[in-house]
Amino acid sequence: MLYPLSLAVFRQKSREMPLKSFVREIGNMSKKFTKKEKHECRRGGAYIAPDSSPLSSTAGSSTALTEHGRWANLPPELLLDIIQRVEARETCWPGRGDVVACASVCRSWRQITKEVVKTPEQCGFLTFPISLKQPGSRDTPIECFIQREKATSTYRLYMGLSPALSGNLNKLLLVAKKVRRATCNDFVISLVGNDFSRSSNNYVGKLKSNFMGTKFNIFDSQPPKDSLVRSTNRSLQKTHLRQVSPRKPMFITAKISYELNVLRTRGPRRMKCDMYSIPASAIGQGGTAPTPTAFTNCNDEARLGFKTLKSTQNVPLVLRNKAPRWHEQLQCWCLNFKGRVTVASVKNFQLVAAAEPSQNVAVPEQEKVILQFGKIGKDIFTMDYRYPLSALQAFAISLSSFDTKPVCE
User: C or N: which end of the chain has fewer Cβ atoms within 10 Å?
Assistant: First the structure.
């Protein structure tokens, strides 16, 4: 009969002590951050790194119980009640960092927090790093903005309306760095802004262009669920395990292509996105998009150069830019960005689904804007995305607009 008494005491104290003070005490006990992570995330609130080792480690278990013994031994029902209250009251950053702080206390707290927190598709919130690879909300778009630093060729994705409206409360989501090569340009994407190594746990993918900047491949650091894996390099098939690079493998999840403008006619860029990891049925009635639940380690076969090319369940989802209309008075091409874009630019675009008649996709679903990107300042761009795209996919598509395309304009 100890538990009912404990739960009654907790409920009584929760009325006397504000929940925010209780959560702050929990957050102070969490020692998960390193100095480097704290410096990188001071503008974005709390940060929790993806799992780099199995949770069943014996050493990790003993350490967690030693450091957080009085918290790890709470009854599961009482712990669930605490996490649910914290999660229900924090709906945006930086306050949502309290939810991450609860997951950082110990293993039991982390497991229950992961069960309580819903995916962005269900709740519209971004909480853990894996949320960046999960589809966005079905109801309303998730509003973000990109800050460009030309001097360092760095692009930072923040969650929020704009720097002017959010101030220092912006949540840093992803950072990309442009690497110029002899025959192409790479945009390496990381969870932090000071670590772009492919062997790091912060590495999540990259965008690679061709020589002309008209075609791009989106690479992910882990294969999508239910995907077909093929090798793109024959010499790698005979490579021995001792020759395997410690770097993470890369899997092609999407292809972006821009139409050539040979006649130099007036008009915006025309683009097409083949989302190999998302079936076209995802936007239909009752359709679902792949939703990873954790960062996974790829097997040795995948490390030998295997890359995913297409989904095995259905034809891939195809996205095309929404056709603008010509405004006679303004003498320019116009799109309705609903106030989210204020500066005219050739980089601005909106993407909608391009479904075939045989796929039986409703007309409203085909007209719904899945991703929109546009300029609002000298180096500030808005990016709003929704289901079935993830933040990583939307960010990679938006990065393709920054690359130079002399044959498309």
Answer: N
Report the distance separating Cα 243 and Cα 246, nearest Å: 9
Nearest residue to 347 (alpha-carbon basis) of 397, 389, 391: 397
Q: Count the neighbouring beta carbons within 10 Å of the beta carbon of residue 276.
A: 22
> Which tokens hold the place of 248?
């993470």
CA 215 centroid distance within chain: 22
Cβ burial, residue 131 (10 Å; 0-12/13-18/19+): buried
Contact between residue 109 and residue 71 where contact means Cβ atoms under 8 Å apart: yes
Contact 202, 190 (CB under 8 A): yes
Q: Is the pTM of this model over 0.85?
A: no
Of 13-17, 336-340, 351-355, the poorest mean pLDDT is in 13-17
The first and second tokens of residue 366, run together, are: 């085909």
Q: Is the peptide bond before 316 cis (omega within 30 degrees of 0)?
A: no
The residues near 21 (Cβ < 8 Å, ≥ 6 apart) are: none
Per the CB < 8 A criterion, the answer to whether 321 and 267 are in contact is: no
In this predicted model, what pLDDT tens digit does every residue of 161-217 receive, in sequence order? 888 776 666 899 999 999 998 888 999 999 999 999 888 889 999 999 998 888 999
Pairing of strands 332-334, 325-327: antiparallel
CA 70 – CA 78 distance, rounded (Å): 13
Reported residue count of the chain is: 409
CA-based torsion, 207, 209, 215, 221: positive or negative: negative
Secondary structure, 3-state, 156-204? EEEECCCHHHHHHHCEEEEEEEEEECCCCEEEEEECCCCCCCCCCCCEE
Nearest to 280 by CA among 310, 316, 309: 316
Q: How far apart are alpha carbons 383 and 373 in whole angstroms?
A: 5
C-beta of residue 317 within 8 angstroms of C-beta of residue 280: yes
DSSP 298: P
Instruction: Please provide residue 352's backbone torsions phi and psi, each rounded to the nearest 5 degrees.
Output: -130, 165
Task: Using DSSP bridges, classify how beta strands 185-190 and 171-180 pair: parallel, antiparallel or unpaired.
Answer: antiparallel
DSSP-assigned beta bridge partners for residue 274? 255, 318
Average pLDDT, the chain: 76
